[in-house]
Amino acid sequence: MHHCSKFRRERKECEWCDIGPFRQREVENIHTCVDCGRERPSRFRKVIALEKEVKTPRHGTAKVNIRDLARSVEAACKTAQQVLVAPLMKRLGGVRIESVLEQLAAFAPIRLVYRRHNGSFRLHGVRVLDRAALSEVAHPGATTRRATTLASARQVVSRLTHPAAQSIRELIEEPASAMLDERIVTALAGLAQLVESGDVIPLRAFSAKVLGSSKAFSPIRNHVERLVGPIEHLGIRDWGDWC
Predict the structure, then answer these.
(1) Most buried pick, 41, 87, 123, 237, via CB within 10 A?
(2) Which residues, 6+ apart, have CB-to-CB distance to 158 below 8 Å?
(3) Model-level pTM greater than 0.85?
(4) What number is the average pLDDT over the span 4-12?
């Protein structure tokens, strides 16, 4: 008969239970046997967190303050799945952050995470469950506009033959490109056409021609260059007259 002697600590997520429009579950630390995986009986449960989310998000357009909060959460979660609440409170300057986040959760698929603090549970973070749906709350109609822009860009680059243009085409055709900003998708298609043509034009001229403003490319340049490398290699120059 196996005797459990070595244990490891694990995170255990309990079953969801309904509380009004929300559902909630507890998260606890448990110890399981290294060899057989059996949970070690404990006299007291050690609940370390609570998680809460809306059972069925609403449809429709959220109020302006909720959309603003959605944009803040969206910006903060670009490189992480969970956003800490403390920086949001400092940025938004409000003690009602929990109440407003609950209102956001009514529209967007986010999960509120509470951690134990001094014997009670305090709101600690926000976990984004669906980035695309959150973006739609932050920017109503963005999903449709992004899809239209992406379809147009894919059509534009579909027959290009230059190796660099084909690399951009492959990038645009990836499923992940559906989440790119419309301006980035449009700029990528424009760069592919430029390198295909073999022309060399000033940056501001390219920006005005492709994005409608000579200054529109500057905010997205770093992101574009992370995707395709230095734009100077694709026919863009930073100097010279453009008009």
Answers:
(1) 123
(2) 169
(3) no
(4) 82
Query: What span, in angstroms and rounded, lies between the C-alpha atoms of 236 and 215?
Result: 14
- The angle at the Cα of 195, spanning 193 to 199, to the nearest 5 degrees, equals 100
Amino acid at 235: G
- The answer to whether the CB of 56 falls within 8 A of the CB of 18 is no
- Detail the DSSP E strand segments found in 85-206: 110-117, 120-128, 201-202
Task: Tell me 238's DSSP state.
Answer: S
CA 100 to chain centre: 20
Distance (Å, whole) CA 72 – CA 153: 28
Which run of H or E residues covers position 103?
helix 97-105
Tens of pLDDT along 36-48? Answer: 877 787 778 888 8
Where would I find the H helices in 7-93? Answer: 64-76, 85-92
- List C-alpha distances in Å: 216 to 157, 206, 212, 213, 236: 21, 10, 7, 5, 15
Per-residue model confidence as pLDDT tens digits over 152-182: 999 999 999 999 999 999 999 999 888 788 8
